[in-house]
Specification:
The complex is a heterodimer. By secondary structure, chain A is mainly α. Chain A has helices at 16-21, 23-37, 46-66, 77-104, 106-111, 118-145, 151-181, 184-198, 213-222, 224-237, 244-269, 272-275, and one strand spanning 3-5. Helix content of chain A is 74%, strand content 1%. The longest helix of chain A is centred in the middle third of the chain and has 31 residues, at 151-181. The two termini of chain A are 31 Å apart. Chain B has a domain at 259-393: Coagulation Factor XIII, Chain A, domain 1 (Distorted Sandwich). Chain B is built from eight helices and 21 strands. Chain B has helices at residues 27-46, 81-88, 121-132, 136-150, 165-177, 195-210, 222-228, 246-255, and strands spanning 6-17, 53-65, 70-74, 96-101, 105-108, 183-187, 214-218, 231-236, 239-245, 259-260, 262-264, 272-273, 279-286, 295-296, 302-309, 315-323, 329-334, 342-343, 348-355, 363-373, 378-390. In chain B, the strands form four sheets. In chain B, strands 10, 12, 14, 16, 17, 18, 20 and 21 form an eight-stranded mixed β-sheet that branches. Classes of the chains: A mainly alpha, B alpha/beta.
């Protein structure tokens, strides 16, 4: 084998074979992040269930019982809310962890060589684990409310989840690179994510924005998660119509975000060790 | 003839230090740069704006390493050794030049990379091993060896944050020592653990080298370098100064920056700190008759003449340290220790320190001078600037084991 080390020049391609060679490292780092999380806690993994359930209960109380926001299509509010919450927590969790992945592992970045892409992707993988656990609660709720997902809904579900992954990874990669140099990201991001939740149909249905078509269009185009959430609700809970055009737009925009994030990360990754 | 396993060609690495550092390149930044450039030039002309400075950590370094060679890379702090290793490990890209590698490189730039305090010793072995590039199977196969080397069998299942620092470091090195790469690059990681462990580590690395692997070893421990490496590379301020047999290069390193007999310190000198008004102007080693000499015998008087520039009448304090080739301070003299007050007779005064009887073993010694004012505030310090040799072979005496040698009296009791 022979390879050269040279000053970086211009456009850098993604080295897929190398990522495959380092696949063990993905698993090890993901396992590290997961094992460390609940060390020395009493409730351990139970936290992964307590958090979403408590959030759902409180939000239902405030937004549904007090503020009288309805699902708009007859779906019971708790499960309506929870589908949105589940996806939203996947997105925000992955985004936060991915963007901080480089800085949190700065010592590793400065001392060992491995494809830097592994760090944000590992953060995304731990997000999927949380997503899986939280989905169990959703399944439980669906049984409780006696809802059966339509066949088409189930078939399209992987596509929607893929869209969510692409979207969160894309923005996460972009933020990860930005965060290395401008630590503002670490402070701005939680704030932005908080606000963003209200501009996504998590606690309310998209139809609530019908009186503001401009805002609605902007939201559907710029925020792929809105499309994902409304379509997952339609597909799984069966009360509203499935919207293929929205699905298409979300997938397209997410892929776009992902590609941009990936290439920005690759372009700036070489200097991380010098800047971190 | 086989091709060298590493070929380093004109490698250069530039950092920008100072306030206005350049952002890493992105389209947006390029656009901003062109518009900002004009503004910056205006600002620089009319206001004092700190400009970004180019710092070349490495400049035009070239050498080749053949398969199976053990090369020691030595140099002062700041010479560029770690930067070179970082470039070789692909952690940071070079600014210029090219390196061709024909084997897998495993780098040990720090022990315990990736160790997580919350995980147990066992878990950290797998974690660290994976980070260093070992596959899971490899780690499992070598697990027992690693644990035995680190001597932590009883503590495998406790979180690493509970380990003593010695245990931590032993475990970290144990994992790293069992890497099986074609090329092993090590950066000063021997400075860990107690003396016995250091010996163990050296042995292990020696074995690796003997097995025919290529080793690049950066260290300040000249003893280790001499033992492990056949070839030496000397870096100084980012430039390659020597590439020869290890012993030769070590010798060159130890004597670089030191004169013998006498040295003029009015200009710029390496290893100089302090910016006070009092300055050391020159240094000289002499024998009793005040003739300049640089080779002395055990027990001889040694005179050190120090030129000091300042203001007549001012009080000053001088300290003289004598170090051996390992950098250990063997002797230290200071006029305040000797309860002698020193006052400048004129603006340029010469002080002579007389050591009546040199208690040193044979070897090479390096002098460091410290100059302070009457309030003991440092004005000037020049490190390792003048060397002298103690050679008592013609007295017929052998080298004693102590750092210094003091004659003793031996009397047999009568009856």
């Amino acid at each position: 084998m022979e390879y050269t080390i040279r000053p970086p020049k211009g456009f850098v391609r993604i080295n897929w074979p190398e990522l495959w060679r380092y696949r063990d490292l993905f698993l090890v780092l993901a396992w590290r992040d997961l094992s460390v999380r609940y060390k020395q806690t009493v409730l351990g993994v139970a936290w992964a269930i307590i958090q979403p359930v408590v959030t759902m209960v409180i939000f239902t109380f405030i937004f549904n019982r007090m503020a009288n926001i309805q699902s708009g299509d007859g779906t019971p509010y708790p499960i309506f809310l929870y589908t949105g919450q589940l996806l939203w927590q996947y997105f925000s969790g992955t985004l936060t962890n991915a963007s901080n992945a480089m800085v949190a592992n700065a010592s590793l970045v400065q001392k060992v060589y491995f494809p830097r892409l592994i760090l944000p992707i590992t953060a995304a993988m731990t997000g999927l684990v949380d997503f899986a656990i939280a989905s169990l609660i959703l399944a439980g709720m669906m049984i409780y409310y006696g809802m059966m997902p339509g066949l088409m809904g189930l078939m399209v579900l992987p596509l929607l989840i893929l869209t969510a992954i692409l979207c969160s990874m894309g923005v996460g990669l972009f933020m990860a690179s930005l965060n290395v140099k401008y630590r503002d990201v670490r402070y701005a991001l939680p704030f932005a994510i908080n606000i963003l939740m209200y501009i996504t149909p998590v606690i309310y249905p998209v139809t609530m924005l019908n009186n503001h078509p401009g805002v609605k269009m902007a939201m559907l185009w710029l925020n792929p998660m809105s499309g994902v959430i409304s379509n997952v609700r339609a597909g799984l809970l069966g009360h509203s119509l499935f919207q293929w055009d929205i699905l298409g737009i979300s997938l397209l925009v997410s892929t776009f975000y992902f590609v941009i994030g990936l290439y920005y990360f690759r372009a700036t990754e070489r200097y991380f060790a010098d800047i971190a | 003839m086989t091709l060298p396993i590493i070929e380093i060609e004109s490698i250069g690495k530039k950092y920008q230090i100072g306030a206005n550092r350049e952002k890493y390149l992105s389209l947006r930044d390029q656009l901003a740069k062109t518009t900002q450039g004009a503004r910056k030039r205006f600002m620089a002309k009319h206001h004092h704006v700190p400009q970004a400075e180019d710092f070349w950590a490495l400049e035009d370094v070239s050498f080749s390493v053949k398969e199976g060679e053990a090369v020691g890379i030595i140099g002062r702090n700041g010479a560029g050794k770690s930067t070179l290793l970082k470039i070789l490990s692909q952690i940071t890209p070079p600014t210029k030049g090219k390196i061709t590698c024909r084997g897998r490189i495993a780098s040990l730039l720090e022990v315990g990379t990736g160790f997580h305090p919350e995980l147990t010793g066992r878990e950290n072995i797998f974690l660290n091993g994976a980070i260093l590039g070992m596959t899971r199977g490899e780690i499992r196969r070598k697990f027992d060896e690693i644990v035995a080397f680190a001597e932590v069998d009883k503590f495998l299942d406790t979180p690493v944050k509970r380990y003593s620092s010695g245990m931590y470091v032993r475990l970290a090195f144990a994992v790293a020592a069992h890497l099986d790469p074609e090329i092993l690059v090590i950066d000063e990681v021997l400075a860990v653990g107690d003396a016995e462990f250091q010996k163990k580590c050296l042995n292990k690395m020696g074995n690796v080298a003997k097995q025919g692997r290529t080793v690049l070893f950066v260290s300040h421990n000249m003893g280790a370098v001499a033992e492990l490496c056949s070839r030496g590379i000397l870096l100084s301020r980012g430039v390659l100064r020597a590439d020869a047999k290890a012993s030769e290069v070590i010798g060159q390193y130890l004597s670089s920056g030191t004169g013998t007999g006498m040295i003029d310190l009015t200009g710029n000198v390496e290893e100089r700190t302090g910016s006070g008004p009092l300055r050391i102007t020159n240094l000289m080693t002499m024998e009793k008759s005040r003739e300049t000499r640089s080779v002395f015998e055990f027990g001889e008087p040694l005179l050190v003449a120090i030129g000091v520039a300042g203001k007549a009448g001012k009080e000053f304090i001088l300290g003289v340290s004598i170090r051996n080739h390992l950098g250990q301070v063997i002797l230290h003299f200071s006029n305040s220790d000797d309860r002698e007050k020193l006052l400048m007779a004129e603006d340029q005064t010469s002080v002579t320190l007389e050591i009546p009887s040199l208690p040193l073993n044979d070897g090479k010694y390096f002098m460091t001078i410290w100059l302070g004012d009457g309030m003991n505030i440092m004005n000037d310090r020049v490190g390792n600037c003048l060397s002298f040799v103690v050679d008592s072979t013609h007295q017929g005496q052998c080298k004693s084991q102590g750092l210094v040698r003091v004659p003793g009296k031996w009397i047999i009791a009568k009856g």
